[in-house]
Amino acid sequence: MDLKDIDALIIKLNQELNLIKNAKELEGFRLKYLARKGELNDCFEKLKELSVEQKRVFGPKLNTCKKELEQRFKEKQSLFDKVTEEFFFDYTLPGKKKEIGSLHPTTLTYRHIISVFNSFGFEIFESNDIESEYYNFDSLNIEKNHPARDMWDTFWLDKKYILPIGSKKDEFKSINLLLKTHTSPAEMRFMEKNNPPIRMVNMGKVFRYEATDARHEFQLHQLEGLMIGDDISLCNFKSIITGMTRKIIGQKDLKVRLRPSYFPFVSPGLEVDVECFKCHGKGSKCSLCSNSGWIEMMGAGMTHPNLYKFAKWDRYNYQGFAFGLGVERFAMLKYQIPDIRVFNSGDLRFTKQF
Ligand code: FA5
Hints:
Layout: H1 3-19, H2 23-34, H3 39-47, H4 52-88, H5 105-119, E1 123-124, E2 130-132, H6 133-136, H7 159-162, H8 169-173, E3 177-179, H9 185-193, E4 198-207, E5 219-229, H10 234-249, E6 256-261, E7 266-275, E8 294-303, H11 306-310, E9 319-326, H12 327-335, H13 348-351
Parallel strand pairs: 1-4
Antiparallel strand pairs: 2-3, 4-5, 5-9, 6-7, 7-8, 8-9
Bound molecules: adenosine-5'-[phenylalaninyl-phosphate].
Adenosine-5'-[phenylalaninyl-phosphate] is lined by residues 182, 184, 208, 210, 216-217, 220, 222, 263, 266, 296-301, 322-326, 328-329, 340.
C-alpha cells in the first residue's frame, strides 16, 4: 500500500459522498465502503502486511479517514431522513378515522333488563364468579349426593391455585370451590345480610361444563331476581315477569308461558318460555327451539322456606319468588339472533351491528 493511494481514496470517497442525492444512494455508499465487508475495511486488512514503521504512518491516517467519513455519512443521513419525512407528508390526505367501539349486545341487554327492574324498586347486588360449594348448592337446599346437582355440570376449581390472600391453608382445605353454575348463590348471600321486604337483582357470569348448540353456551350470563315479603304470591310473579319480559323484548303481544318444573330451592318450581321467534311457534324443522315452538327464558318459583332457615331469619313464614333468566336468551329474542354461539365468537361483523 502506498501513502498516495490512501490520500486518493479519501478524496474519491469525499467526492462520491458529495454527489449522493438520496437515501438509496447513501445506503449503496455505506455498503460499498463503510460496511464490515466494505473497501475501507479491506485497507485495514492490508495494514497487516506492512512493516511496523509503515503501520505507524498509515494506521492513524486510516483511522482518522474512517471517523471523518462516518461523521459525514451520519450528517447526510439525518438530512435525508428529514427531507423524506417532509417530502412524503401529504397534508391534503384525509385524516385517519379513530374507530369508536360499541357495547356488546349482552351488555346492552343486561343493562336494559336491570334498568327495568330498577325502575320497579329492585336493588342491584353484586357477587363473584368463584363460589363455594356451600353457596352454590348446600345453602340452596341442594343436598350432597342429591341427583339435582347433576342439573348443573360444574367446573370445580383446584384449591392449590386459588387460595385467597391471607387465608389459613388448613381452614381453607374444607371449602370446595367452583365457577358458579348459576346466579342463585347471590340469593343466600343477600338474604344473610338483609331481612324482608326484599327486592333484589343480581347479574353475573355463569359457567357450565356442557356441550354447545344454538341455545346453549358453556359460559353465559344470568340475572337473578328475588322478591320476598309477607304476602307475595305466584300471581305477583306471573304479572311482573310477563309484563317485564314483554317490555324488555319490546313486544306487547309476545306469547309467554309458565310451565311446572323442579328446582330444590323453590316450591312450586316453574320455567318461563316464550314463543320461538325463528319458527313463530310452528316448531317444524327449527334448530333454535328443537321443534318445540318455545324457547326457555328462565327458571323460577316460590322461594323454599328452608332458605329462610339457612339465612337464619327470625321467622320462616315469609312468601316470595325467585327467578334466574338467561341474558343471552333475552338478547337473542330482542335482536333476533338465531344462534347463541356468535356472542362469544369475537367476530367484529357481529358486534359492530350494535
Ligand atoms: C337455573 O340456573 C336456576 N338457578 C334458575 C332459578 C332461579 C330457578 C331462581 C328458581 C329460582 P336453569 O339451569 O334452567 O336454572 O337456567 C336458567 C336460565 O338460564 C335458562 O332458562 C336459560 O335461559 C339460561 N341458560 C341455562 N343454561 C344455559 C346455557 N347453557 N346457555 C345459555 N343459556 C342458558
